[in-house]
């Protein structure tokens, strides 16, 4: 059986918590921030949790 490999692109973008949830940061906070309101940028600071089949697919790509 071949070795399991971690998808490094997925590992950079998502983290799996101890309880098994998949956490990510919101997109849209890298550049072109001057036209975005302060409230919008503040809400983009918060992370979010993925659910359902999407979270299962990401967990499968992060075996370690």
Set down the secondary structure blueprint:
Elements lengths: L7 H6 E3 L5 E4 L12 H8 L1 E4 L1 H10 L3
Antiparallel strand pairs: 1-2, 2-3
Describe the structure.
The structure is a single chain. The protein contains 3 helices and 3 strands, in the order αββαβα. With 64 residues, the protein is an alpha+beta fold. The chain has one domain: Irregular (Factor Xa Inhibitor). A hairpin with a 5-residue loop joins β1 and β2 (22-25). It is elongated, with a radius of gyration of 15 Å. 2% of the residues are buried.
Quick tags:
single chain; 64 residues; alpha+beta; Factor Xa Inhibitor; three-stranded antiparallel beta sheet
Give a brief description.
The protein is α+β, with helices and mostly antiparallel strands and 64 residues long.
Question: What is the fold named in CATH at topology level?
Answer: Factor Xa Inhibitor
Order of helices and strands: HEEHEH
The level of helicity is 25-40%
Given the structure, what is the number of helices? 3
Widest sheet, order of strands: 1-2-3
Mean pLDDT: 96
Number of strands: 3
Roughly how many Å is the radius of gyration?
Answer: 15 Å
């Amino acid at each position: 059986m071949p070795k399991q490999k971690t998808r490094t692109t997925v590992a950079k973008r998502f983290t799996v918590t101890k309880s098994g949830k998949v956490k990510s940061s919101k997109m849209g906070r890298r550049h072109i921030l001057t036209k975005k309101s302060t409230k919008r940028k503040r809400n983009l600071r918060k992370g979010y949790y993925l659910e359902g089949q999407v979270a299962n697919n990401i967990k499968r790509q992060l075996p370690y």
